[in-house]
Write a structure and sequence with these properties.
Layout (H helix, E strand, L loop, with lengths): L22 E9 L4 H12 L3 E3 L23 E7 L18 E9 L9 H11 L5 E7 L13 E3 L8 H28 L20 H5 L31 H21 L3 H17 L3 H21 L27 H19 L9 H20 L5 H9 L10 H19 L8 H18 L2 H26 L14 H6 L14 H11 L16 H17 L3 H15 L5 H20 L15 E7 L8 E4 L22 H4 L3 E4 L4 E9 L5 E12 L2 E3 L2 E5 L3 E11 L3 E12 L5 E4 L18 H5 L14 E6 L5 E6 L5 E5 L3 E10 L8 E8 L1 H9 L6 H13 L3 E3 L13 E9 L6 E9 L10 E16 L2 E10 L5 H4 L7 H12 L9 E10 L5 E8 L5 E8 L4 E9 L29 H7 L4 H17 E7 L8 E4 L9 H7 L4 E7 L5 E3 L4 E4 L4 E10 L6 E11 L4 H4 L6 E4 L3 E7 L4 E10 L3 E11 L10 E3 L4 E5 L1
Parallel strand pairs: 1-3, 1-4, 4-5, 5-6, 9-17, 19-25, 35-43
Antiparallel strand pairs: 2-3, 7-10, 8-25, 10-14, 11-13, 11-15, 12-14, 15-16, 15-17, 18-20, 20-23, 21-24, 22-23, 24-25, 26-27, 27-30, 28-29, 28-31, 31-32, 33-36, 34-35, 36-40, 37-39, 37-41, 38-40, 41-42, 41-43
Helix pairs in contact: 3-5, 5-6, 5-7, 6-7, 7-8, 7-10, 8-9, 9-10, 9-11, 9-12, 11-12, 12-13, 13-15, 13-16, 15-16, 16-17, 17-18, 21-22
Protein name: TRAPP II complex
Organism: Lipomyces orientalis
């Protein structure tokens, strides 16, 4: 069975360490059924014991195998370089640098997966056939419980299980393997010594008459880039003795062959750990090669001497510096004793000599130094100097780091010393960078440039390191394309970074396995390049602002191109995401579309190959812009309300118009409430700033606090949009729930969580400060949102609540038509859909379309108090909708129903109404809660209100003989008879007509059908007079309505307000009076209060209604006439109101007089008559005093003549008499005697002028309403 292909890449030791040529290369390969984790474990156990002390190695007892016996230098050590790849590209260098040759092949097998050990013999043969250049081939059985003697062959090595094995067990096994290896090295040494010719790496076939050192070289076509061959003979006998053909060479060639043979023996001593012998052999070979001017091998020998001296210095074994490596001594100092130089100073000088010899070798074709050797020599010296610099000089830690690649402990070092060491090392780095790499393959170029970059990184030259790594990536792309063109000559599709062919992606799945010519460590360099140039290497890294954006974009495009031509699908996915994350704003639309197509193809290809867990997070951290709760259309969101329904003044905001200490509700903020077990819709705003669609495979809500379950959805976000979408969430426990963001997964990205970043949270970097060097990298600002710009949605989850719904409404289509003043009823049937929770508390509220306009009118400051009261009356007392069902004790059980009766009033301006039913569940417990969670169920109805009976106007007429209806008599009846007949018609006694007046009310029928109108007027405390009329459509009719005059009105009372009590404000009254005030319609506050209270008393005594008797409906329409449309003036008030002081005139009974009317008397001439003046006070609180004045006049004459009565009437006394302290409801009579001398008609008028200060103001006059008429015959 052939061994399996390698599963690991690279060795843990530093390949550019100064002592790297002293390590034996051992190839490890899996054998049999070995899983990848187990193989990694086996390799790790071997690497832990890679250093073998020669004193612990048992020497081979055979005398012919003692050339490299460990007893020759027991203090020495041997170092294994365990690798899992075969470096066939450097096979042409194995003669010059033997450490590149694989000398041992170990197959690693898992004993637990092997059923039969006999088949392993075939595996040994396969290993020997595949790797003939190795000197030993062994199979190591891990976790083998057998004893070594129980194994079928010595080629099998048993390693006990790990639980029964220690480190010494593995070390003992490696010591045994080392003994076998050292026993086989003499055969190889004899072959080198007997070889006819040993050629240089770049020598051509016609330069020497040479033969192959091994037959495997010819079989494997091991040739250098210049076509060189190896130097072992082509045949090996069965007894392992090598025979060589005879040839004749010149003396120079013979000496050169001898020197090269000695140098190769020195290489073998160095690999075997015999450092003293290696130093001796290197010195002798150097002297021989120097004599024949073999510069290449001379320089290689000199390099070996430096390695030997370094290892001996590390071991602590004293040695003498060879004279060949000492600097030349001047003639003047030959007589003086010169102190030998320090090894730390000598090694760089030796490297300069080596490089000088390498440069000389360029003059000889076929003998020039390979570029890889030249560059690695410089880099090994660079690493040596770096170790000594960071280890504070020539210390044991520095030597251990240079020899065994051990880490240097952290320590402080002065800035000046560090700076000097760094600058001196940079000269060597510059020399390595100057090596031309045109003829070097991609692997060697990558190794050289990565070595230079690693050295720059250790020294802190990150900018230089980034430049070198960028050069590496740019140089690798054309080399890899060229190598693939050579490796796949039959392929028509060539992978190039500028080609985006779907066929290429479909056909290149097998190409994902890296060719053996490509170093697997190249892709790891890309991460370092991105870090150096300020590009976030993963989704968790912050975006640094240092560096140029164009350079970052170029770097990432180069990385994508390199990953594409390899191809490495994981790398394409990773670096495309990094490009979108850091440079999306500078990419054009076409570039974004091309990149995302490559991204999707690479992701699909990687997943189809079985690659797992390689996705990065989505590249835009601001995907979620906002999250908000959407009010459910199925059930209302509950609100927190106090349990008491009544509200105090403090609940309404207090008595003040403005309170600076009160908190505004908007500032306090109200948390939204969710109900346990009820799904809630959340609106999520997603941002896609890219030019392509985002395929979000999964998305759900995340949060903290109480538990919940969220729906998982998938969606596609359009390009360059803020896209709204909905996700439903169901709370599973009560408490506070904070929604912090969304968990989502975009196609090609791993699942991640995004916080809520509002659109107003603009990410702005800090102000740019000019800085240089590493300060720019450390102090650069970061593009990250501020902590206060991240939003979260906080909601409270309350216990389960009942859910009501409207099952039925008796209104068709929830609409109705009314006439103004009409009332109509309908029912609402409520159903409780909750399975377990009843409704224990129910309340109802109403709003309509007139509320807004009335509130707006109420806010106008120019309105008078009476107008505001009128508006408030229609707002608060004329409710358009009311509930007729008692809801105090109503409960709706779970899955039960309840019926509510509603009444709607036809109100002018009413077009719609809203019924809000608030309900809650109060659990039964001994402790009464102070608050409750209330839900509101709303029902909107449409209302059409048509005009019915409208009040067009009104007027008032007192009862007297000058009334128009009296004048319209037939001329036959007297005035008294006519007036008495009219009063009988309207139901008022003739004697009490002074207590009444007549209202002329104009009504208009605006309904296209006749309406019957009835007006009720309260004429007494227990009697009502009703006026009935039928008004035709569109007609205006005047109705005569008797009104009882109003008395006892306190005009000092303020006009009330129906709005909640507020801070007292002084009313603004314009100081207009007289004609101006009447013209502008502005009254004084006293007049306004008098008119207001008079009108209120009038409206209390009146009521009106209409009926549509001819309507086609079954039940006739009926409604109330809105009498608040009546408007009265102060002049009307004087008619309908009884004055506080009433003055009446009459004549005392006498035989000389005869009464012809209530105020009409017939008196004989020259007869003494007594005039009785009656003064009555209607005030309830105060006594009144004043002056009574009597004014006689001739009737029906002008005033200038009518008042001239001095010779016509004689009075006994004066016509102005004081009347004092008239009590409330008291009538005071004053008699005045007079004699009429001349015949004619006279009239008397009396007035009372108040002199009491507190009674309505001093000087107010009250005049008798009716004149006393006397006819003298």
């Amino acid at each position: 069975m052939s061994p399996q292909p390698p599963l690991l890449a690279s060795a843990p030791l530093d390949s550019l360490s100064y002592a790297a040529p002293s390590r034996i290369r051992a190839y490890l390969c899996p054998v049999g059924m070995v899983s990848h984790p187990r193989f990694v474990e086996f390799v790790s156990r071997l690497q832990d014991t890679a250093i073998i002390r020669l004193g612990d190695v048992t020497p081979d007892p055979r005398p012919e195998r003692l050339m490299f016996s460990p007893q020759g230098f027991p203090d020495g050590f041997l170092v294994y370089n365990f690798v899992t790849t075969i470096d066939s590209n450097h096979a042409f260098l194995e003669d010059l640098e033997l450490y590149r040759r694989t000398l041992a092949v170990f197959g690693l097998a898992d004993y637990n997966n092997i059923n039969d050990l006999t088949y392993l013999h075939g595996v040994i043969g396969a290993l020997q056939a595949q790797h003939p250049q190795a000197v030993i081939h062994k199979i190591i059985l891990f976790d083998c419980p057998l004893d070594q003697s129980e194994l079928p062959s010595s080629d099998f090595i048993c390693v006990p299980p790990k639980r029964a094995s220690r480190v010494t067990s593995i070390r003992t096994i490696l010591c045994d393997l080392t003994s076998a290896l050292l026993a086989e090295l003499p055969l190889l040494a004899k072959a080198f010594q007997s070889a006819d010719t040993i050629v240089s790496p770049l020598a051509r076939d016609d330069d020497y008459d040479s033969v192959m050192l091994t037959s495997s070289a010819a079989a494997n076509n091991r040739a250098s880039p210049a076509g060189s061959t190896g130097s072992l003979p082509s045949t090996i006998s069965k007894d392992k003795r090598i025979s060589y053909p005879l040839s004749h060479h010149t003396e120079r060639q013979r000496v050169r062959r001898k020197g090269r043979s000695m140098k190769m023996i020195a290489n073998m001593f160095l690999l075997a750990g015999r450092t003293f012998d290696a130093l001796k052999e290197y010195t002798e070979a150097l002297n021989v090669l120097k004599g024949v001017n073999d510069h290449l091998w001379h320089a290689s020998s000199l390099e070996g001497i430096g390695i030997c001296m370094l290892i001996l210095a590390h071991i602590g074994v004293p040695f003498v510096l060879p004279n060949a490596v000492l600097p030349p001594v001047s003639p003047a100092s030959e007589k003086k004793e010169v102190e030998p130089p320090h090894l730390l100073d000598l090694l760089p000088q030796m490297t300069n000599t080596i490089l000088s010899l390498y440069n000389r070798s360029q003059n000889f074709p076929g003998e020039s130094v390979p570029q890889i050797t030249y560059a690695e020599t410089i880099l090994r010296t660079t690493n040596l100097l770096a170790c000594t610099t960071f280890a504070h000089g020539w210390t044991p830690a520095a030597r251990a780091a240079a020899v065994l690649s051990r880490p240097i402990p952290d320590g402080s070092i002065s800035q000046s010393e560090l700076h000097y060491g760094k600058m001196s090392i940079m000269h060597w780095i510059s020399a390595a960078q100057a090596v031309p790499l045109d003829g070097v393959d991609a692997v060697d170029a990558a190794r050289i440039l990565t070595g230079i970059a690693a050295a720059c990184g250790r020294l802190g030259f990150f900018r230089k390191r980034g430049f070198v790594l960028r050069q590496l990536v740019i140089d690798l792309i054309p080399r890899i394309i060229q190598s693939r063109q050579i490796a796949q000559p039959r392929r028509s599709t060539v992978p190039r970074p500028d080609v985006d062919d779907d066929d290429y992606w479909e056909d290149s799945h097998d190409a994902h396995i890296k060719p053996r010519d490509l170093d697997s460590g190249v892709l790891a360099v890309l991460r370092d390049i991105c870090t150096i140039y300020g590009i976030p290497v993963d989704s968790t890294s912050e975006i640094s602002t240092f560096g140029w954006q164009d350079v970052k974009t170029s770097i990432l495009k180069t990385c994508i191109g390199l990953c594409q031509v390899m191809p490495d699908y994981v790398g394409i996915v990773r670096y495309t995401g990094m490009l979108f994350r850091s440079s999306a704003e500078v990419l054009s639309v076409d570039e974004q579309l091309t990149l995302v197509r490559k991204f999707w193809n690479a992701y699909t290809s990687a997943r189809s190959m079985g690659v797992q867990d390689f996705e990065d997070e989505y590249w835009d951290p601001y995907l979620v812009r906002d999250i908000a709760v959407v009010e459910s259309s199925l059930w209302a969101v509950p609100t927190l309300a106090p349990l008491e329904a009544a509200s105090s003044i403090s609940d309404l905001g207090g008595p003040f118009i403005y309170n600076p200490f009160a908190k505004k509700g908007e500032e306090e903020g109200k948390k939204q409430l969710l109900v346990l077990g009820e799904p809630v819709e959340f609106k999520v705003i997603l941002q896609n700033p890219f030019a392509f669609e985002l395929d979000i495979t999964t998305m759900s809500l995340v949060g903290t606090g109480t538990s919940f379950s969220s729906d998982v959805i998938s969606l596609v976000v359009p390009p360059r949009k803020l896209y709204p979408m909905s996700i439903y969430l169901t709370p599973t426990s009560t408490g506070v729930l904070n929604i912090t963001g969304c968990r989502f997964q975009v196609f090609g990205c791993k699942e991640t969580t995004s916080a809520i970043t509002p659109t107003y949270a603009v990410v702005t970097p800090q102000s740019r400060i000019k800085s240089s060097g590493l300060d720019a990298r450390r102090s650069s600002s970061v593009k990250s949102p501020s902590p206060w710009s991240v939003k979260h949605v906080s909601v409270d989850v309350v216990p389960a609540l009942p859910v009501l719904r409207i099952d039925r409404v008796s209104l068709p289509h929830s609409s109705l038509m009314l006439l103004e003043g009409e009332r109509q009823k309908f029912t609402i049937v409520l159903g409780n859909v909750s399975e377990t929770i009843p409704v224990s508390d129910l309340s109802i509220a109403f709003s309509d379309s007139t509320t807004k306009s009335l509130n707006a009118a109420l806010q106008q400051d120019s309105r008078s108090d009476s107008d505001k009261y009128e508006i408030e009356t229609f707002l608060h007392k004329r409710a358009a909708v009311c509930c007729l069902t008692d809801l105090d004790d109503m409960q709706i059980p779970a899955n039960g129903e309840a019926e509510i009766e509603i009444e709607v009033l036809g109100k002018r301006g009413l077009t719609s109404a809203r019924i809000e039913i608030s309900y809650s569940h109060i659990p039964e417990s001994d402790c009464i809660p102070k608050e409750r969670y209330v839900r509101t169920l709303a029902l909107d109805i449409s209302v059409t209100v048509n005009a019915s009976i409208e009040v067009a106007g009104c007027n008032f007429v007192p009862f007297n003989y000058d009334m128009p209806m009296i004048r319209t008599g037939d001329g036959k009846s007297t005035t008294t008879n006519l007036l008495s007949k009219f009063l009988d018609t309207i139901g008022i006694p003739f004697e009490a007509m002074d207590n009444y007046c007549l209202m002329l009310l104009d009504l208009r029928n605006s309904w296209p059908s006749q309406l019957a109108v009835e007006i009720d007027s309260r004429t007494a405390s227990n009697s009502t007079h009703t006026v009935k009329e039928i008004i035709q459509p569109g007609h205006l009719m005047r109705l005569l309505v008797p009104i009882r005059r109003i008395s006892h009105i306190d005009s000092s009372l303020p006009i009330p307000s129906l709005s909640p009590a507020k801070q007292f404000t002084r009313p603004s009254v314009n100081s207009l009076s007289g004609d101006v005030a009447r013209k502008e319609g502005i009254w004084s506050p006293e007049v306004e209060r008098t008119v207001f209270w008079s009108r209120e008393e009038l409206l209390r005594a009146l009521s009106a209604r209409w009926t549509d008797n001819v309507s086609a409906t079954a039940a006739p329409r009926s409604g109330a006439v809105e009498l608040r449309a009546l408007r009265i003036t102060p002049q009307m008030v004087d008619i309908i109101r009884v004055d506080d002081v009433v003055v009446n005139l009459s004549l005392a009974s006498s035989k000389y007089i005869r009464k012809s009317g209530k105020y009409h008397w017939i008196v004989e001439a020259d007869a003494f008559v007594t005039l009785v003046s009656s003064v009555t006070s209607h005030s309830k609180t105060e006594n009144v005093s004043g002056i009574l004045r009597i004014q006689p006049a001739l009737r029906n004459l002008p005033a200038s003549i009518a008042l001239d009565i001095n010779r016509r009437i004689l009075f006994n006394g004066i016509l102005q008499l004081p009347v004092i302290d008239i009590k409330s409801s008291e009538t005071r009579h004053v008699e005045t005697d007079f004699v009429v001398l001349a015949r004619g008609e006279y009239e008397f008028l009396a007035s009372f002028q108040v002199t009491t200060t507190d009674f309505g103001g001093n000087g107010k006059r009250y005049i008798s309403r009716e004149k006393l008429v006397i006819s003298v015959n």
